[in-house]
Amino acid sequence: MFAYRKIFALLFMSFLNLSVCAQDEGIESLRESGKAFASVARRVSPSVVFIKVESTRDTAVQDGFALPFDDDFFRRFFGEPSPGIPRQGVPDNQRRTVSQGSGFVFSVKTGLLSDKAYILTNNHVVEGAQKIQVTFQDGREFAAELTGTDPQSDIAVLEIPDAGVQVLTLGDSSELEVGEWVIAIGNPFGLSHTLTAGVVSAKDRTSLGINDYEDFIQTDAAINPGNSGGPLVNIDGEVVGINSAIFSQSGGYMGVGFAIPINIARNIAAQLIDNGEVVRGFLGIGIQDLTGALAKSFGLEQTQGILVAQVSADTPAQKAGLQQGDVIVAFQGKPVTDVGAFRNEVSLMSPGSPAELTIVRDGRRRNVKVTIGKLNEAQSVGQDSTQITEELGLTVQTLTSSLAAQFNAKAGEGVVVTQVEPGSIAALAGIRQGAIILEVNRTVVNSAGMFDQAIENSRASKSVLLLVREGGGQRYVALSW
Questions:
Q1: Are strands 48-56 and 388-389 parallel, antiparallel or unpaired?
Q2: Chain-centre distance of CA 340, in angstroms?
Q3: Are 185 and 193 in contact (CB under 8 A)?
Q4: 313: domain range?
Q5: Are 244 and 111 members of one domain?
Q6: Are 400 and 389 within 8 A, CB to CB?
């Protein structure tokens, strides 16, 4: 019996020693993690700037304060602006405002006449700016000039005299993995050089309606108003994104933030510095995501790819032989997964460069070679995107012969609803994908263009009456927004 007790005592003491060792190892691991974050902060913070912008904006004014946020869903990262200062002859909606954001030094160029340091930030931080001031962590202040902006991607580049400022290393955002540690550094609520840490919670977020061109990194690193334009860095201190937007119903942090991948920002910024503008590639097609029902009707076993809903006249797509009803399944040898990612790929290609599309037409795969065109101001971005009626929250398409056969309708009679946004007023009214809209405000619509114009004519009244055919029956639906 004594021997068993001795053995038990030895085992118990060994267990205690193991528990203490495990606890010590856990504490040491946490200590090392803290040191890693501190090391990143020391390396990155000197290159992050606080941006103060003075401008005269069209603002909603309430009790003498300018309200910068007009969207309860996605909010940009301006800090709360200073109270508007009334001036004689200046209307309330044109008061001078002071807003704030973040940015970081990403490039320095040495020239014969001057040396310049370039700062990357968001377009919405400096939009309409009349005076821009940047402040570094060490207290140095500079008046910044605007090098160029690209509202469609929400990228802007500023320049200041090079005074020996430290340049951040740009990483490769394509190598990011979901679950990887990332760190956001910026100036939330005017609190200079704040660091928050989290993980990459998702990648390739598109079709959020924030920018014209989207491919966001989603992170749970705490981001708040004033962080906009600041760097999102990996554990090695390399910039992998630009903090740009948050999902919020209160204007503050709710666990979901979005950053522009640095691979996209790098390309845009280089064009702004070298040319003062951004040149985008162009095909000239209207496209939409491929649903299960549409995939079946086009003889596909899966929903990989995007559907060509329209081919505009005298465009690279038409010259290459693309047709309405083609399904694009690959671009440059890479699978096409959604509309947003495809548009980004095309837009980043240089006009005049060759490209190859893999399409499915009549159930057969084929390769199509095309020469990328140049998107100009006369060509709406919408030509290469799904056309969504934002007020109603639905997408419609002209009834072609193939679509009419699929939805048991007549070609040229009405438009077919190809997508309904969840939670939209159309969805709440019971309108579903596949419904046929015959009339808008008692006027027959036979094409997506006619439908669009009818909705445009209704924007002043903010209401519309639709005649909808579903399941062999027809009903009127009154919608207001």
A1: unpaired
A2: 9
A3: yes
A4: 280-383
A5: yes
A6: no
